[in-house]
Amino acid sequence: MTSNQVLSEVEYRVVGKRPVRPDGVDKVTGRAQYGADVYPAGLLHGKVLRSPHAHAKVVSIDTSQAEAYPGVTAVVTAADFPFASMSREELGGGYQRLKFATDLIMASDKVLFKGHPVAAVAAVNPHVAEEAVRLIRVEYQQLPAVINVQAAMEEKSELIHDDLYTSYLGENSEKPSNVAAHLYFDKGDIEQGFGEADVVVEREFHTEMVHQGYIEPQNSTAFWNTDGHLTIWCSTQGSFMIRNAVADVLQFPISKIKVVPTEIGGGFGGKISTYLEAPAALLSRKCGQPVKMVMTRTEVFEASGPAPGSWMKVKMGAAKDGLITAAHVTLAYEAGAYPGSPVMAGTSCALSCYDLQNGRVEGYDVLVNKPKTSAYRAPGSPQAAFAVESVLDEICEKLALDPLEVRIKNAAKEGTRRVEGPVARKIGLIECLDAAKSHDHLKKPVQGKNRGRGIACGFWMNRGFQSSVTMTVQYDGTISLLMGSVDIGGTRASIAQQTAETLGIAYEDVHPTVVDTDSIGFTFVTGGSRTSFATGLAAIGAAEDVKEQMVKRAAQIWDTPAENVEYADGVIRHRSDPELQMSFQALAKQLGSTGGGITGRNNIDPSGEGNGYAVHIVDVEVDQETGKVDILRYTAVQDAGKAVHPSYVEGQMQGGVVQGIGWALNEEYFFNDQGQMMNSSFLDYRMPTSLDLPMIDTVIVEVANPGHPYGVKGVGEVPIVPPMAAISNAIHQATGLRMASLPMSPGKILEALWENGKS
User: Fold this and answer.
1) HEC-encoded secondary structure of 562-624
2) Which of these three, 604, 619, 645, is where a domain ends?
3) 743 preceded by a cis bond (ω within 30 of 0)
4) Separation CA 294–CA 234 (nearest Å)
5) Which of 303, 330, 351 marks a domain boundary?
6) Are 219 and 297 in contact (CB under 8 A)?
7) Burial class of residue 236, CB neighbours in 10 A (0-12, 13-18, 19+)
8) SS3 assignment for 682-716
9) For position 245, which CATH number holds?
10) pLDDT at 1
């Protein structure tokens, strides 16, 4: 049975409790409306023609047979996008950016990955649309596919874009390259640091692309009305980001686009980007009816954004007492066919668990003929942690030191300056390490043959960004809470809890609703572990606005200056006359007769976010005959600042661990030498099931974030960061093997055992 602990600093009335989720009934009864459930009147269905090649010139496209097919109402290609008729002179410095944004959605001159869209069809039903897509004739001139990140970096590699130059320290390279950017951060003197080391370890690591694994495929329904307004219904992590992206590629005013977010069947970062919205909109404009498009599972794998594969090199030195004297980390991440891998985040996270005097981190954003990568839960950090934490574990072994004690000795703390510059405020890594040290998991030795234990740390730099909240006091004393943050992991509940705590009313009296882009102010995506923090702060500000207005309304009723009235714990009272007081509900009943309703609102772009840290412990058993790894026990320790809803936090921690286990042991995009993905289904893309997993223990450590009234930090990203390294370290203890490539599948482990004479 799972053992969950909350090491709490402060207790609140609503925050920190485990109330029923507001959307629970609709979801378990099937009434919740997801993207594929949207059926406006006159709905048509769209399908996409996708490239069979990973790299090819598009010589010609003939859509005439598809357009003539009975039941087909519209066909679009790249020629229908505004970019096709805009010149380089007209766009100036924005030419390449708009070309990349448009071409990702619909290829023009070249296709750059298998599954790249080249045309789309709308028809009376999906079957007609599928048949029409097959009638479109495309002539390709195949080009060599670049599918290896190291090969792509070579000077003689086939160029994916002829006009892409490497950006480095504010300058661009003289020659075109597949390397979009070279990042470089330095602290101290690493050469001096390596000279002071008693042991130096240098290793290379590889990881493959992996998918976020959400159940619901990408979908979009668009209706371009005759009044010139465009409405889009879609499953997204950020309705405003979809609106902005569509406005950009269609060169259309954002004021004429309304995005309605539906319930979302999983995202984990993979549903931030836009894929189907613009083609559906153009098809709708052509035919005058709403058009729905839904990806198949194969399309999701081949044509949406996975997490990047990588090549990494880590060199680390330490003194004999375990103090890290220097570290040099090089990260090369696959961006896919267009710039924008999370290598920047990877460089920020790589060494951020440790207080180093001498460090250097370099990053390369590298293009390959694969789908453009997208965010996946702490994007960029898990790969870097796999490399860094594996090397640190090897150093501990060479020095015969306890790996947890070495991490405690080197742990980042308040005042630590990261290699790329930021200085830590109040953080909880040491508290997490102490909690791990005292946990029952570490107190019990690993027993049994071919078993081992691994430990690893993880970091994610939580963000703030813009959020908007509006709340109205109803005359029965309840609150209608409107927000622009899509609910993926329970933020309806966490925002409602912070609202109720601030107003001093019952959680059940707060009714949260996620609304469209016309109904609320700009709100950034639900991602980056920002929502409970930033949108929570917006709700707190709106609640304070409500409290101020309620005080003024009570002062009006009592015919006294507002400064004579106070609001505390859901009660409005006269400061000097104890007989004059009203509950929130009682005052709400008088609003209609004393001036009308009260609405609080707040738009915020907060700083003060708290960085997230985690420490994971895992026990494994390795079958020497098959190479299969069984997870025997897993404990995740994490600083949540303040767990607003501990059950949701535990779920986030356990979910991140499960995804990390899949990433560590089984999951990978497998490409042939032509750049074609060979396992684009859930039958062949091996994700963990309940049969592959143990019960996962969680320990929530609460080190309050001073940048939030209730100490809240984001929690969704960090849990996926340590698992790959922790499992790798455990496999080493069980077998003596150091695995430097993910996934650590049975085949790879068995081959390594054979090569080392261990099987």
Assistant:
1) HHHEEEECCEEEECCCCCCEEEHHHHHCCHHHCCCCEEEEEEECCCCCCCEEEEEEEEEEECC
2) 604
3) yes
4) 10
5) 303
6) no
7) buried
8) CCCCCCCCHHHCCCEEEEEECCCCCCCCCCCCCCC
9) 3.90.1170.50
10) 44
- Give domain status of residue 647, yes or no: no
Structurally, the chain folds into a number of domains equal to 2
In a domain, 248, yes or no: yes
The dihedral through the CA atoms of 92, 93, 99, 105 has a sign that is negative
One-letter amino acid at 614 equals A
CA angle (464 as vertex; 461, 470 as ends), nearest 5:
155
**Integer distance in angstroms from the first to the last C-alpha of the chain?**
34
Strands 324-336 and 310-318, bridge-based pairing: antiparallel
DSSP letters, 85-129, are G--HHHHGGGHHHHHHHHHHHS-SSEE-STT-EEEEEEESSHHHH
Distance CA 745, CA 692 (A): 13
- What is the model's pLDDT at position 34? 97
Whether the CB-CB separation of 410 and 347 falls below 8 Å is answered with no
CA distance 531 to 539: 11
DSSP secondary structure letter of residue 738: -
Average pLDDT of each block of 10 consecutive residues along the chain (759 residues)? 80 97 93 96 98 98 98 98 95 96 98 98 98 98 97 97 96 97 98 98 98 97 98 98 98 98 97 98 98 98 98 98 98 98 98 98 98 98 98 98 98 97 95 98 94 98 95 98 96 98 98 98 96 98 98 97 97 96 98 96 93 97 96 98 97 98 98 97 95 96 96 96 98 97 97 88
Instruction: Identify the domain containing residue 538 by its residue range.
Output: 467-604
